[in-house]
From TrEMBL:
Domain Glycosyltransferase 2-like: 9-128
Name assigned to this protein: Glycosyltransferase 2-like domain-containing protein
Pfam family, one: Glycos_transf_2
Source organism, top-level taxon: Bacteria
Length: 286
């Protein structure tokens, strides 16, 4: 963040969600002491979970009535120097309420190509301009008044240990007619540790995404979602998954692709029965 090329004043707010050890707070205090380039504020969030942490960050930002834009990235990411300037440029060009950008993953250890591809969306196909929906907060710019126009909590606490609190918010905004845009040159890079580069972890993540995506859709009921249409899609996806794991099973890449798709379908099925998967109940790496 200290390398950002930006022509306007910014504030940096960091949330530490470990209220006992507060290692994040200690790291920020060391950065401030070393002479950080921007005003840096630290918020310690006692309630565990992603949603309470994001709510605390927004609440802190909105204490300044002059704030017009709120950008977010995750704690295991770093921004390219033009990241924020590109988000702001695209926001102005397309009069967007929300602007997203690509997150390129950098693996700690070498992984097979099919593992790397499974973890990296094909951003090359996404061009700068209007977008139907931004669905993640790991690289995003919000119009601050979006939050002022809504009651707290902005990120639903029911997703605190599940994830998908960001997609829940974005889908709600889309259904209210808010405008989204994509900034292909607003680049973020994310560290992928060895523990998140295994087949087991990726299948667990696919299961969680299937589960939480369905829970969000059941909550909001967007026009394109019905239980019947979802069941039809799941049947087709499971058939394709089985095909990849059997007929095309001679290839490790095909077996993985099939297993990953099956895991996602299973997560959806579990969600339709009313059950939830709390991925973040166990702290990653513990």
């Amino acid at each position: 963040m200290g390398r950002l090329n930006i022509d306007r004043p910014i504030r940096v707010i960091v949330a530490d969600n470990d209220s006992e050890q507060q290692q994040g707070k200690a790291a920020c205090e060391a950065i401030i002491a070393a002479g950080f380039a921007h005003p840096l504020e630290i918020v310690v969030v006692e309630q565990r979970g992603i949603a309470p942490t994001r709510n605390a960050l927004v609440r802190q930002a909105l204490k300044d009535p002059a704030i017009q834009w709120i950008a977010m990235l995750d704690d295991d990411e770093w921004a390219e120097p033009d990241w924020l300037a590109q988000l702001l440029r695209v926001r102005q060009q397309y009069d967007a309420d929300v602007v997203g950008g690509p997150v390129f993953r950098v693996f700690e250890v070498p992984v097979p190509d099919y593992i790397a591809e499974a973890n990296q969306p094909v951003f090359e196909n996404m061009k700068t301009g209007p977008l139907d929906l931004v669905d993640a907060t790991n690289n995003v710019l919000f119009r601050a008044d979006l939050f002022r126009e809504m009651p707290e909590p902005w990120f639903d606490p029911q997703y605190a240990l599940m994830g998908c609190e960001d997609k829940d918010l974005f889908l709600g905004l889309r259904l209210k007619g808010k405008r989204f845009a994509w900034a292909s040159e607003a680049v973020i890079r994310e560290e992928m540790p060895a523990s998140r580069s295994t087949v087991k972890w990726m299948l667990q993540r696919a299961y969680r995404i299937g589960n939480t995506d369905t829970i969000v859709n059941l909550k909001h009921r967007p026009p394109e979602f019905t239980v019947v249409s979802e069941a039809t899609k799941m049947s087709g996806a499971m058939a394709l998954a089985l095909f990849n794991m059997t007929v095309m099973g001679w290839s490790a890449a095909n077996r993985f692709k099939g297993a990953r798709l099956a895991a996602r379908v299973f997560g959806k099925v579990v969600a339709l029965t009313g059950r939830r998967h709390e991925e973040y109940r166990v702290i990653h790496g513990s």
